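Design request, tokens follow.
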């Protein structure tokens, strides 16, 4: 493959595409359901620690692997001479199939809810009951086919430019709508308890290993790690873009959306009487049970709900595309299949792989049972497979690339990460932390340790801790996003200006 490798056109385009793959169902569906299941604020603490201390470094490692080798996952691991590099890299092609198989099923529910909102089908009904009856209807089959057909057709056309351009408009609009829904949610009478649940940690919960394990899976899932997607996207990055500050911008931008989704869902869940859904077997359906109720009590709820689910569909589709793409690219590069053939072939396989989840919902009784298979798959992929592959990228950069990897990370960066602590962090702290969590996951899978009862929550009213936590989280993520993004974009502009004037920049 002597073809010159493509790169992102503009810096802003790269950030939009990165945030585009990262923002999806993971932020608005998976984050709130896990956060609810594992005790709200109690989950947020390991989530923030693992996001900034582990996942952000894992993302930088995937970018380093991609940009340094300019290859797909298979070629990248092979090129740096990682033991069994091609076999391990092959996970970057096969793994996404398993993720896509259920990710697209949830995407298809979102698509259905566009019509359900516009038509007002759930208005005035028990939304838990409505969601369960939808899962047992013929609609699930139809929207599933539609969702698979949409991603396959987009990929067959190869309209990457269209997607990127659309990302730049749709993702910011999704943010604005999320802000509006969150404001409506926190201003509902009775919302206080939800805010408290989301922002006041129950410290004793931090001793529960399953909360840390779930948080570890989620931080990798939300940043699109462990599936080859970020590695491939990193291979399109220009050498002149510093990795650390861009990683901060993408991490903060992506997570701002998750934090907002929590504010949209938890206050409303408590205010509208769905507190009991949180943490139970049905919590995986939280988004489809609580948000419709919020739209019902909003002026213009039909339209607003429709628009919201359209944008969420867009976020989900733009992520699903990045999950389907590696296999198509591999078929094109290595087997020589035309893009179209690859897109429809993978589409057919992926459609078949999604059917078990659809049938489970169709035939089982009770919402919890209908969602059981999908929940299991989500644990296997999201909590085990994704972090394991993510860890391999860290080991590859930390141990197999040696100084080349750390130099690549700091290449052309204005704020460089000091080598010695960076090496220590990537080589020792991150793997040790992850290894402990893997051992705990295995102990749990083999039944040696059991999942405890839900983390208890007794409302005591808004305390100074709640207010402090809220201010801290909002400033950290939204402020961090604005700071990091402004910095990389302003510096970029400055570089262009200096280049035009024929000046070299001094640092
Ligand atoms: N980050 C995406 C989300 O949060 O919805 C999910 C995802 C996309 C995971 C691509 C992994 C991936 F490679």
């Amino acid at each position: 493959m002597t073809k010159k490798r493509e790169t992102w056109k503009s810096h802003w385009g790269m950030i939009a595409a990165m945030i585009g793959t990262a923002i999806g169902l993971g932020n608005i569906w998976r984050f709130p359901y896990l956060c609810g299941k594992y005790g709200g604020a109690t989950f947020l603490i390991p989530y923030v620690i693992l996001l900034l201390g582990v996942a952000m470094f894992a993302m930088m490692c995937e970018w380093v692997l991609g940009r340094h080798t300019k290859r797909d996952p298979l070629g990248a691991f092979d090129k740096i001479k990682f033991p069994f590099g091609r076999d391990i890299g092959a996970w970057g092609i096969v793994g996404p199939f398993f993720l896509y198989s259920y990710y697209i099923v949830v995407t298809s529910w979102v698509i259905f809810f566009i019509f359900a909102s516009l038509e007002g089908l759930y208005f005035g009904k028990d939304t838990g009951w409505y969601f369960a009856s939808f899962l047992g209807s013929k609609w699930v089959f139809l929207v599933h086919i539609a969702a698979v057909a949409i991603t396959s057709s987009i990929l067959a056309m190869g309209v990457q430019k269209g997607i990127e351009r659309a990302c730049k408009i749709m993702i910011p609009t999704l943010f604005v709508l999320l802000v509006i829904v969150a404001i409506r949610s926190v201003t509902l009478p009775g919302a206080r308890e939800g805010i408290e649940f989301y922002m006041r940690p129950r410290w004793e919960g931090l001793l529960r290993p399953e909360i840390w394990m779930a948080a570890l899976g989620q931080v990798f899932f939300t940043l699109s790690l462990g599936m080859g997607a970020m590695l491939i996207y990193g291979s399109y990055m220009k050498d002149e873009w510093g990795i650390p500050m861009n990683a901060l911008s993408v991490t903060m931008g992506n997570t701002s959306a998750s934090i907002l989704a929590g504010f949209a869902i938890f206050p409303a869940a408590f205010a509208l009487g769905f507190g009991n859904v949180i943490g139970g077997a049905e919590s995986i359906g939280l988004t489809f049970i609580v948000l419709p109720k919020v739209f019902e009590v909003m002026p213009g709820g039909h339209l607003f709900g429709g628009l919201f689910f359209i944008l969420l569909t867009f976020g989900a589709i733009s992520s699903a595309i990045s999950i389907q793409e590696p296999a198509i690219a591999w078929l094109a590069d290595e087997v020589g299949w035309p893009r179209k053939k690859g897109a429809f072939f993978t589409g057919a396989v992926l459609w078949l792989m999604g059917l078990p989840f659809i049938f489970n919902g169709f035939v089982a009784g009770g919402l919890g049972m209908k969602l059981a298979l999908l929940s299991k798959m989500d644990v296997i992929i999201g909590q085990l497979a994704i972090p394991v592959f993510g860890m391999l990228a860290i080991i590859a950069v930390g141990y197999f690339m040696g100084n080349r990897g750390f130099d690549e990370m700091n290449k052309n960066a204005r704020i460089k990460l000091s080598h010695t602590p960076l090496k220590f962090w990537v080589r020792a702290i991150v793997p040790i932390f992850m290894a402990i969590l893997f051992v705990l996951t295995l102990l749990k899978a083999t039944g040696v340790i059991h999942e405890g009862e839900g983390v208890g929550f007794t409302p005591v009213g808004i305390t100074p801790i709640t207010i402090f936590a809220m201010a801290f989280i909002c400033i950290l993520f939204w402020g961090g996003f604005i700071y990091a993004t402004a910095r990389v974009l302003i510096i970029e502009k400055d570089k262009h200006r200096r280049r035009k004037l024929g000046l070299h920049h001094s640092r």
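Comment from the thread starter after seeing the answer: thanks! The two ends are 36 Å apart (CA to CA).
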